[in-house]
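re: the backbone from monday

yeah here it is again, tokenized this time
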């Protein structure tokens, strides 16, 4: 299995986290985001032997998540949620 396959669980966790944030439940939003990141890191353990195209995809995702982390650090949860819902989640779905 390549690192970008089976993103369904990660997408679900991100969607659940975004919904929690939109409903004002910051603790649940952060928890789901952290779980999604941990799931993705587990996928990265399998990245050895990935193709150049897969590494390009991984690099794009890292850049998107870095942007989300910067927004969360500055406590701009609304914009972080927008980035997750409108950029990260569609990107992950396109990788499935």
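seq for it, each position gets an aa:
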């Amino acid at each position: 299995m390549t690192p970008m396959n089976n993103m369904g669980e990660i997408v679900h966790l991100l969607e659940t986290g975004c919904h929690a944030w939109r409903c004002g439940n910051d603790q649940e939003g952060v928890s789901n985001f952290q779980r999604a990141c941990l799931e993705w890191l587990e996928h990265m353990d399998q990245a050895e032997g990935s193709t150049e195209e897969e590494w390009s995809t991984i690099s794009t995702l890292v850049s998107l998540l870095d942007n989300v982390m910067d927004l969360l650090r500055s406590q701009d949860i609304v914009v972080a949620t927008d980035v997750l819902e409108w950029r990260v989640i569609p990107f992950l779905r396109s990788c499935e």
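The radius of gyration is 13 Å. Helices lie at 8-22, 26-44, 52-73, 77-95.
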